[in-house]
Amino acid sequence: MTRIVAVGNANVDIAVFLSEIPGPDEDVDADSVALGVGGSASNFASTCAMLGEETSIVAVVGGDPLGSFYLEEMAKRGVNTRLIELRADSQTGFVVILNLAGSQRRMIRYRGANLLLADDVLTRRGEALRSAEVVHTSSVRPAVVRALIEMGLRPSWDPGWTAVSRYKEEVLELMETGQILRAFFNEKELRELTRLDDLREGAASIHERGVEEVVVKRGKAGSSALTLGTWYEAPALRVKAVDTTGAGDVFDGAYTVARLRGLNPGEALRAANFAAGKTVEVQGAVNGLPSWSEIRSFLSETK
Known about the structure:
Number of helices: 12
CATH architecture: 3-Layer(aba) Sandwich
Strand order of the largest sheet: 4-1-9-10-11-12-13-14
Distance between the termini: 34 Å
CATH class: Alpha Beta
CATH superfamily: Ribokinase
Strand content: 15-25%
Shape: globular
CATH topology: UDP-N-acetylmuramoyl-L-alanine:D-glutamate ligase
Number of strands: 14
């Protein structure tokens, strides 16, 4: 039985590292370029699989070379790809990521086959979804989460900025169903959703709506979690960031694996901070991911 099933976007990431952004009718040379697979749920699934959990992903790719590349790369990472649906008449989604030295990254997104992830796809994957211990979805339309709940599932959910900013009322409505096992946010998302500046109060407001566990990613300030009325905090790992692409997804994956393996929320936060911190030191969303044994050693050494 697959322990973890991710649901979400299947993308090919084209990461371009630049010293400057060209102006109109100008061009510049890239310092380097990295081609990989991405999408929040894909990064999450990769993390869980690479940490040793049996993991699958429900997603849709096109019948093009990018789709073939995605399937091959996910398989190399240990993710079971049997639940991925291939649509021959569609194009695989991709993201061009512009990483400007000394500045925030910029992303250009083409959704492509990701827009075909809908009720019919989930229904066809119903048996696998219901047999999983954790179903996690991230950066998808609220309708996808609603469909999972209507199937009788209690998904883990990282809504992402687009859902929080565009579909706020629907996100809150889904939080109130009592069917969300765990919700992940960054500081900006939680404040936007709750209109509360205090993160602990914001997390409490989501917890009171029926979400069992609320996890807050705070960047350089570390991370926090609220579950069963108890507030946990953990400091960030001190690192020199090279590429922050997918760091939040790695955090979600490492936290989920840690909780599945019996760690308490405080320990899981520390494990996730370490995993995400190590990945940003290397180009590529999961290329710098430590092993589970390295995570356990870190936890033992920093008690």
